[in-house]
Design brief:
The protein is an alpha+beta fold. The chain folds into two domains: 80 residues, 2,3-Dihydroxybiphenyl 1,2-Dioxygenase, domain 1 (Roll); 151 residues, 2,3-Dihydroxybiphenyl 1,2-Dioxygenase, domain 1 (Roll), CATH 3.10.180.10. 15% of the residues lie in helices and 36% in strands. It is built from four helices and 19 strands. The strands form four sheets. The protein has a ten-stranded mixed sheet with strand order 18-9-10-12-8-13-16-15-14-19. The protein has a four-stranded mixed sheet with strand order 4-7-6-5, covered by helices on one side. β6 and β7 form a beta hairpin. The relative contact order is 0.14. The structure holds fe (ii) ion.
């Protein structure tokens, strides 16, 4: 992720079309807000009018407008629209993979430079909530999220859900938001950034490890969402994830229930650290 300063804030941007993926302001370490993008400026204005909220100009890279609101646990949500896009600068993969059934890289070699993973976009955010059902209802009412997987304990109690955006027939990530009423209580759980591909994830993992950082969880492949994942902790204890190769669904693809074992388990790779950590 590239960083730049503007208007007293530090921004991180990826190589996709967003002007920034992360914003840091001077102050005590902490999670401040989650940003969501409205389909249009008109949709944002309608959203605000229906709730008696103010639409403010967005004095950040790309401009646009913003509506702020707080969820039942007092998390700040920033719904934005009309931001000018950045020119994507996604590096092209110079060579294609060969597998047992299909050979795509022919008469050339495969070489990858040691470098950080290429963050393309913010894929999802996970928030610890005090009352899952209350938060679920709130996010569905205000933003139209659809449940992909609801996590249910053996006694039938639901403790969280992977929520995807309702984009109709358009494909969208298995989850853009995960709400969890878990042992860590209310608080920011992690933010997850999509990187180029599996090679890029492993190369970035090596890069961070050689720079002296200790992996938090990974590398492995999730069950729910199916992503290949790699989790790290920043110097202030915030968890950040690199991921690639996740599931995509449309609005018509429905919802299912999942077990705690599916939530915490891996299809391969490192086991999850204790969930209280
Ligand atoms: Fe994640």
């Amino acid at each position: 992720m590239q960083s730049f300063r503007e208007g007293g804030a530090l921004y991180g941007r990826g190589c996709g079309g967003s002007r920034y993926l992360h914003m840091t302001e001077l102050g005590d370490p902490g999670f401040v807000a989650l940003g969501l993008v409205a389909p249009s400026s008109e949709a944002l204005a309608d959203f605000a009018a229906a709730r008696g909220l103010a639409v403010e100009p967005l004095d950040r890279p790309g401009g646009g407008t913003m509506v702020q609101l707080r969820d039942p646990d007092n998390y700040l949500l920033e719904l934005v629209a009309g931001q000018a896009a950045a020119a994507p600068a996604i590096p092209s993969r110079s060579t294609a993979p060969n597998d047992a059934t299909e050979k795509r890289r022919l008469r050339t070699v495969h070489r990858i430079d040691p470098k950080p993973s290429h963050v393309v976009r913010l894929g999802h955010c996970v928030l610890g909530v005090s009352d899952f059902r209350r938060s679920e209802a709130w996010y569905k009412e205000h933003f139209g999220f659809i449940t992909s997987d609801e996590v249910v304990l053996p006694d039938g109690a639901a403790i969280g859900a992977f929520l995807r955006c309702d984009r109709g027939d358009e494909l969208t990530d298995h989850h853009s938001l995960f709400l969890i009423q878990g042992p860590r209580g209310v608080g920011f759980n992690h933010a997850a950034f999509e990187i180029l591909d599996a090679d890029d994830l492993f190369v970035g993992h090596d890069w961070l490890q050689r720079a002296g950082w200790t992996p938090h969880w990974g590398i492995g492949r999730h069950v729910l969402g199916s992503q290949i994942f790699d989790y790290w902790r920043d110097p202030w204890g915030h968890t950040l994830e690199h991921w690639t190769d996740g599931d995509l669904f449309t609005a018509a693809d429905g919802s299912r229930q999942a077990s705690l074992a599916e939530l915490m388990g891996v299809q391969w790779g490192h086991a999850m650290p204790h969930p209280a950590n």
